[in-house]
């Protein structure tokens, strides 16, 4: 997608996210700092921070075995630093691991999604491991461009599906999963 199309689609996705009760009523949410061609969430995160929502962003704990952790951020400009790969993470000098069991909602990235909520990430399994530690019933909402949604994806035993996928034109909700409002 061209940059202008991604920016317009990201704005529509953020608008759809803001309309969901799970997002509007969240006191603590885990999202991600957009990288490369991912859906741009920064304006939504800045708004949440202004509303005093606890915004948590992930970082990779590089000890053995590597794992995905999360830390609260209060200022996207001051509290994040780019890794060697250019991915923005909470600054190692000030980050503290947060408690996954206290989240109200998760906004998850990915490479591809299907109509039943399966997701393909970047291949390391970090998000699947983190999502498996959530408090039961915590809604997980993926954001994606329409071109990232396919009819079906292969599933492995460790894959954790999402409850909904929000794109620029639709919100796909699995009726057997959490109510999002």
Which range does the strand content fall in? 15-25%
Radius of gyration: 15 Å
Tell me the span between the first and last alpha carbons: 30 Å
Number of helices: 5
Question: Which overall shape is indicated by the principal axes computed on the Cα atoms?
Answer: globular
Q: Look at the helices and sheets and give the structural class.
A: alpha/beta
Strand order of the largest sheet: 3-2-1-6-9-11-12
Q: Specify the biggest β-sheet.
A: 7 strands, mixed
Q: What is the helix content?
A: 10-25%
Low-confidence stretches: none
Topology pattern, helix = H, strand = E: HHEHEEHEEEEEHEEEE
Calculate the mean pLDDT score and round it. 90
Classify the oligomer.
single chain
- Counted beta strands: 12
Can you summarize this structure?
With 181 residues, the protein is α/β, with parallel strands linked by helices.
What does this structure look like?
Helices cover 22% and strands 25% of the residues. It has 181 residues and is α/β, with parallel strands linked by helices. It is globular.
């Amino acid at each position: 997608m061209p940059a202008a199309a991604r920016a317009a689609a990201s704005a529509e996705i953020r608008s759809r996210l803001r309309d969901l009760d799970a997002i509007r009523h969240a006191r603590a949410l885990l999202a991600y700092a957009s990288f490369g061609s991912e859906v741009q969430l920064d304006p939504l995160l800045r708004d949440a921070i202004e509303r005093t929502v606890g915004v948590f962003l992930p970082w990779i704990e590089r000890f053995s075995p590597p794992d995905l952790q999360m830390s609260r951020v209060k200022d996207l400009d001051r509290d994040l630093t780019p890794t060697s790969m250019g991915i923005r993470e909470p600054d190692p000098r000030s980050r503290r691991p947060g408690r996954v069991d206290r989240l109200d909602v998760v906004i998850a990235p990915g490479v591809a999604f299907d109509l039943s909520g399966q997701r393909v990430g970047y291949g390391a399994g970090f998000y699947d491991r983190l999502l498996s530690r959530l408090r039961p019933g915590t809604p997980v909402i993926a954001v994606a461009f329409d071109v990232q949604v396919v009819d079906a994806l292969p599933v492995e035993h460790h894959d954790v599906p999402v409850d909904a996928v929000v794109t620029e034109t639709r919100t796909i909700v699995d009726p057997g999963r959490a109510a999002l409002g």
